[in-house]
Amino acid sequence: MPVESLFPRLEALLPKVQKPIQYVGGELNSTVKSWDETTVRWALMYPDAYEVGLPNQGVQILYEILNEMPETLAERTYAVWPDLEALMRAEGVPQFTVDAHRPVRAFDVFGISFSTELGYTNMLTALDLAGIPLEAADRGEDDPIVLAGGHAAFNPEPIADFLDAAVLGDGEQVAIAITEVIREWKAEGSPGGRDELLMRLAESGGVYVPKFYDVDYHADGRIQRVAPNRSGVPWRVHKHTVMDLDEWPYPKKPLVPLAETVHERFSVEIFRGCTRGCRFCQAGMITRPVRERSITTIGDMVDAGVRASGFNEVGLLSLSSADHSEIGEVAKGLADRYEGTNTSLSLPSTRVDAFNIDLANEFSRNGRRSGLTFAPEGGSERMRKVINKMVTEEDLIRTVSTAYSQGWRQVKLYFMCGLPTEEDVDVLGIADLARKVIKAGREASGSRDVRCTVSIGGFVPKPHTPFQWAAQASHEVVDHRLKALKDALRGDKEYGRAIGLRYHDGKPSIVEGLLSRGDRRVGKVIRAVWEDGGRFDGWSEHFSYQRWMDAAAKADLDVDWYTTREREENEVLPWDHLDAGLDREWLWQDWRDAVNDVEVEDCRWTPCYDCGVCPTMGTEIQIGPTGKKLLPLTVV
Amino acid sequence: MPVAQRLRVRYAKRGRLRFTSHRDISRAVERAVRRADVPVAFSAGFSPHPRISYVGAAAPTGVASEAEYLEISVTRRCDPELLRAALDTSLPPGLDVLAVVEATEGSLADRLECSAWEIRLPKADSALAVAAVEGFNAAERVDVERLTKKGLRRFDAREAVLSLEVVEGTETTAGQASSQPCVILRMVVRHATPAVRPDDVLTGLRLVAGFAPPVPPEVTRLAQGPLDVGTGEPADPFGLDREVTRGGETEPVGGHVGGDL
Questions:
Q1: Which of A330, A381, B110, B206 is the most exposed place for a label (fewest CB within 10 A)?
Q2: Distance (Å, rounded) from C-alpha A317 to C-alpha A466?
Q3: A326 lies in which domain range?
Q4: DSSP state, A597?
Q5: Quick one: pLDDT at residue A624?
Q6: Per-residue pLDDT tens for A435-452?
Q7: Which residues are in the DUF2344 domain (chain B) (predicted)?
Q8: Which residue in the set B32, B42, B94 is minimally distant from A310, CB to CB?
Q9: Total structural domains in chain A?
Q10: At A54, phi and psi to the nearest 5?
Q11: pLDDT for residue A47
């Protein structure tokens, strides 16, 4: 069946919307394949605006891998802004892909990558615009399989009613596997309809199909059990782990947008996973073990990516990039290669460590010397022990002194507010730290012209972390502590003006908390918020706390019960049947250790402490050093 | 490194790429220059920038153009035609490099005195359009308002319009894919401050004769250049550069108008 381009109809709407270029596609390195010559077709969505979604690595990787497969096609779609949404509704233009402007409903799979729970309402907009029934139970044979992935998919229960399926973990191999299951099923003439297809996916053990599981509740609202409701469906669904990143060097051909996006750079993931063990960090818990990409593959990817894109900035991504076993050689090798080319290198996510100043100096050789960013996360020594962020005040002061003495003028510090066991004094400790940083900076640089920016995020307890049992701090508590911190800094005549403070109020974190640790009963709140006009919840100008609270009240759902309530050890959690590999007993022990200020080391350099991931998943730590070096690029 | 040569580039934005903003184009050109290995010169200082400057007022977002101009400084002499081909290959289809010449004396900006525009008005009534154009041409001045970055401004849209006419035909331009019959306006507008843009003229037609197009107009800049008083059209602004570098050989002026390169 031929599928026509929606572009002529969309084109008539574009003169009336903001930033129309984001909807026209045609990015460098994008792919348009023939509809009729392919058998399995994916529409991939990042459920936020194009400017945020386009640079997303996960979507770019899957897009490239799927399009490399014969008879397989993948196109991208993003959340449209409310101005275009209104016009599309008025003119009957459905949700479209930006590649060939095909209607999303015509695809076999509608895959949505959730980095954050705040994209849930945007998924509903896209489904509705696409003409796909919002609830999986209402979908028919002509509707795509709606599939969620990304970190938020480790607890997809709040959106279980809207999903046909979800996958946990690395997407590269499972996307290919799903494609083959669908191809085979279609080749057989789609026997048994979409139910049989979902059953085949569920039986594989690597795809979660929510409707094949029933949830029973206790009278007090806690979950009694989650169990498969038909035979052949596994009790637990496991995450996926790619074991050799050198075999998966994607993206090879990065998408280069015409529209301006939030990350204008070529990014290479230098390793996946992190075992630093920060207890608040869901990413660090669910992506274990650490798997490094080798220095030579990194060099090859940067070379090819810069050539293919024309980007003048390279980002070396990971959860803690300075921890790569050969990061010094990588930094030096790349800085040498790109000397004099106005190509700058950046290293997000660095720890408080003087070694990182050397790296930063190396990286700023070819470009701008902007600010340095460190993340002590906790304002007091005790707090940092609770969250297992093993940084002493001494480390921090020594590190920033080195930075200021070597010519850096601006240091940015990240903290969290609302952490478990936190008291006012822990947050006020942030002000003390910031003062000491400026004092040390003035001494080290011999100048009063040094600055420090303190950025504070609200802590949200996440599934599959030791803090999954913790009570989230109420927004009143968070706001009270932030105000006390602000007053302390504002009242400081000696240092206050050298310290910038950036934070948000505590309310959005409560909604994020509800969605993060919610169960299937939260779904009707999401739907009600969306029906009431909720869109783009990650954007402060669109987010409405009141709308969420009103919808929860109307659905008779107690938000506090989901957020500020501490859970018991034996309570069945909504995501217990989804396996990130972490041993539940170890997680509980780590939670107890947190409360008792007991720290745990990184298993890369100390003996295994049995978090459970490697034996459960059949994986192992993959780190260097390889001993290899980057050679100069030869000019062709 | 010192600048060895300055090159002047004429490029088009066509089709769906007409929705690029000026900033989008400037990023795309910077990246294309890098991919094409053009030895572009960089500014000195804390934050070095490639020395690419955009000449004249850019066609607004949503408006196609056959005649946008930029100048690029390079540290090694380049063959203009090779540079044109390399840059064109590196830019996405729809941002097309039409001509490159080596810069000679004089400022290119000073030569961009006027623009020729085409406004296609699908589904518009031809007789009403003719009447509106007559009314506009007969008026002494036509004051219009437009929201600019500096707020709402009121200015005369009539004086800068050197010619405005309804032309026959339903052919499509290179940049646009529409085959339905439509009213086509063609005009030559002198560059002034504040700039009188095609949408200002459309506003003027509405004010003068109540003429309003039923669907969004498709606008294309056909040419920019020094005003040729003989024809009343913009001449090729590269004419002088070509004359100098080719030793007196000149290009036919009319050949570039209409964007059929």
A1: B110
A2: 25
A3: 265-364+616-636
A4: T
A5: 92
A6: 999 999 999 999 999 999
A7: 6-198
A8: B32
A9: 2
A10: -55, -45
A11: 98
